[in-house]
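Quiz preparation item.
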């Protein structure tokens, strides 16, 4: 009974005077500079902050040096990274063309699938007559394809007015495996023009590197 009276007296005293009399205990306050932890039952209890999502890094593109005698022209569609006119060799009626394709990371199909697509554009060329090699430049693996002469039929892939089969055509191709995905370099044109452009084409491949 006495204990109840003391507690009640302390509460009334605190309400009336804002202070506690001697013998009335007060809950301890946290030290200066330290915030009291919220009650677990409080609707405003602190919640763990989720870690910030890591921003996706941009894919590293590749660069190369244009051969002096290859004339860069605007690409005819979004699939092409670059387009060049390759000057015709003496006696040839048309210029050659170098097209560089890039479809994005993990896009455009596999190496063998693309090689076979190029080879099938020369239906009269035997598979044994297709020259293939692997090379490396600036840490990037390259797969080259050469067709010295045949009838070239690009089909639906043909650009411009010169559609239809082309006799005595040739191909120099390369697929470069880059960190941002495969790049496809495809040089086609009259056989003598492509043969004359081969050294410049290989020199271009030697300059291909990741980054600027």
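Solution:
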């Amino acid at each position: 009974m006495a204990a109840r009276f003391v507690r009640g007296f302390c509460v009334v005293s605190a309400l009336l005077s804002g202070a506690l009399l001697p013998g009335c205990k007060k809950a301890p306050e946290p030290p200066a500079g330290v915030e009291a932890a919220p009650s677990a039952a409080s609707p405003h209890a602190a919640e763990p902050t989720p870690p910030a999502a890591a921003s996706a890094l941009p894919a590293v593109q590749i660069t190369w040096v244009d051969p002096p005698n290859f004339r860069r022209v605007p690409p005819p569609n979004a699939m092409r990274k670059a387009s060049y006119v390759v000057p015709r060799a003496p006696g040839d009626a048309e210029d050659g063309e170098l097209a560089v394709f890039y479809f994005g990371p993990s896009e455009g199909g596999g190496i063998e699938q693309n090689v076979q697509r190029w080879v099938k554009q020369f239906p009269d060329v035997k598979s044994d007559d297709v020259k293939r090699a692997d090379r490396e430049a600036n840490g990037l693996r390259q797969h080259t394809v050469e067709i010295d002469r045949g009838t070239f039929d690009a089909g639906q892939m043909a650009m411009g007015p010169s559609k239809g089969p082309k006799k005595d055509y040739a191909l120099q191709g390369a697929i470069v495996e880059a960190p941002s995905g495969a790049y496809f370099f495809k040089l086609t044109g009259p056989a003598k023009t492509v043969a004359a452009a081969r050294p410049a084409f290989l020199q271009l491949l030697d300059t291909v590197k990741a980054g600027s």
